[in-house]
Amino acid sequence: MWPEVFSIFGVGIQSYGLSKALALLVGAFLLGRAFTRIGYDKELAHSIALWATVWGFVGAKVYYLIANWDNFSWHLFGGSGFVWYGGLIAGSIAVIVMTRRHDLPLGRVAGAMAAPLSVAYGIGRIGCFLAGDGTYGTPTDLPWGMAFPNGVVPVDVPVHPVQLYEAAGAFLIAGILWALGRRLRPVAVFGSYLMLSGAARLLAEMVRINPHVVLDLTEAQLIGIASIILGAALILRDTFHPAAPVSNVSAADPSSAVPSPHPVGR
């Protein structure tokens, strides 16, 4: 594995953190292009991506702390230990705040974010793989099974490299979403993201080492099922109750969507 990519003046640059920074940059770039395509200011897209990432990390850490409350220690506040679904919840709240602040239609923004979000997730999972953060799967005899003796969470027997499974699935989902974006309305595109990503997590958990909480399902699988149901509901709602055409001023005049100089929450 490659937990430390290089060092600068004796300070190690970790692959985990580097992957998250790269995920932000790529996600912001792709969202900026999506915003430009629908007539919004790309700088606003970059601002939304930044705040969603910042609060996403906060939410991911809080979720991790809650999940590990019985074994609480100050070490849990370190640079590892984040839960994706906590990040998704907190990041979504940040996006809602930003869209309301700039008077943008949430459904249209969500549709534009779907594919970039999936790409960013895939990049982040590659960083988890390089760091050997413990999110791999059960032991396996398959040719691509890998050991992580030098990982953040070491394991000496070949296991399923679930991080790579999830990364490949995320990139595939992004491609599907870009194709669907030409046929479906934005809300349905985001609903498709929720369904596809939820299904991918259900499959990944089948070879992950996580405790079952109810009905022989892990917590991540239960959330994945909830994601699928919510996504299906959004698609059905958009199909039978389509939103009115967007008449937002920002769509016609991108300059009106220039972000305020004040940060969120001030």
In short:
Helices cover 60% and strands 8% of the residues. The protein contains eight helices and six strands. It has a two-stranded antiparallel sheet. A two-stranded antiparallel ribbon has the order 3-4.
Structural account:
It is a single chain. The N and C termini lie far apart (42 Å). The strands form three sheets. Strands 1-2 form a two-stranded antiparallel ribbon. It has a two-stranded antiparallel ribbon with strand order 3-4. α4 (106-131) runs antiparallel to α5 and α6 (186-205) runs antiparallel to α7 (219-240). The protein has one domain. It is globular, with a radius of gyration of 19 Å. The chain is built from eight helices and six strands; from the N terminus they run ββααααββααββαα. By secondary structure, the chain is mainly α. GO terms for molecular function: phosphatidylglycerol-prolipoprotein diacylglyceryl transferase activity. Keywords: Cell membrane, Membrane, Transferase, Transmembrane, Transmembrane helix. Its EC number is 2.5.1.145. Belongs to the Lgt family.
